[in-house]
Specification:
Length: 255
């Protein structure tokens, strides 16, 4: 498998931002094809990289190697005018853990610091014992299309959610002092999520927002509500380009 998969903005449109997606446990590049295509259609440059290799016996080394690969992936998107900013890292599951822990371990002036992050499905506890592949799919998603994508992809490693994320990295992720704007996404039906911990994390950061998806499972970027979640990400990206001021606000009325 190649080190990354790219999704480009439509020809003739100016690229609005660079988005680098970091998959989680067991996932492949193809897991995020739909998400990547949707953001690319809105004129974002999207690059999906390999999931991080997190060695429980060498967490510092794991983060260092992951950081080097991530910096190279961002630099590799450069065109004649350089890398298009803002640069936003989107991590899912263990990818979200690695992104948060990496930013927490680096200073605010570290080279390669992104302009913002999206942390989706940040796990807070070990996965419940899944009853085979169907049980793992039930933890991941209720979207029939995504279930088929995972099932038919030979690069997806089944049973990966049974492999725990190293505790040291989980603590580092939840305690990370992330200084860039952060959007946290979690499903309220995700058995791996600790929503109370995520709320504390969001409140502890200077510029962070926790968005909870009703009925959302662990693969929150690819669940049944993937359109609404992608819209939430795009809203965040657009607000980021304008100093975190949303372009649309509700003045009056109700549904």
């Amino acid at each position: 498998m190649t080190e990354y998969t790219d999704h480009h903005a439509p020809q003739g449109l100016r690229t609005r931002a660079t988005v680098v997606v970091v998959p989680g446990r067991g996932e492949s590049h193809a897991t995020y094809d739909r998400f990547g295509r949707r953001l690319a259609a809105d004129a974002y440059r999207v690059r999906v990289v390999d999931a991080p290799d997190l060695d429980p016996g060498d967490t510092d080394g794991s983060l260092a190697r992951f950081g080097e690969r991530l910096a190279a992936a961002v630099e590799g998107t450069a065109a004649e005018d350089g890398v298009v900013h803002p640069v936003v890292l989107v991590g899912a599951d263990s990818g979200a853990v690695a992104v948060a822990a990496l930013l927490g371990s680096a200073g605010p002036d570290t080279a390669g610091q992104p302009d913002a992050v999206v942390l989706a499905g940040l796990p807070g506890r070990a996965a419940p014992a899944a009853d085979g592949w169907e049980g793992e799919l039930d933890v991941r998603t209720s979207c029939p299309t995504h279930r088929a994508v995972l099932t038919d992809d030979p690069d997806v490693r089944r049973g990966s959610l049974d492999v725990p994320v190293p505790d040291a990295l989980l603590r580092a992720a939840h305690d990370a002092e992330i200084t860039v704007p952060a959007l946290l996404l979690a499903g309220d039906a995700d058995p791996l999520a600790d929503l109370d911990a995520l709320e504390r994390t969001a409140k502890s950061l200077p510029r962070a927002r926790l968005s909870v998806v009703l009925g959302g499972h662990h693969d929150v970027l690819n669940d049944l509500t993937h359109r609404s979640v992608a819209a939430e990400v795009v809203t965040f990206l657009e607000a980021l380009r304008d100093g975190l001021r949303p372009a649309v606000t509700v003045r009056a009325g109700s549904w």
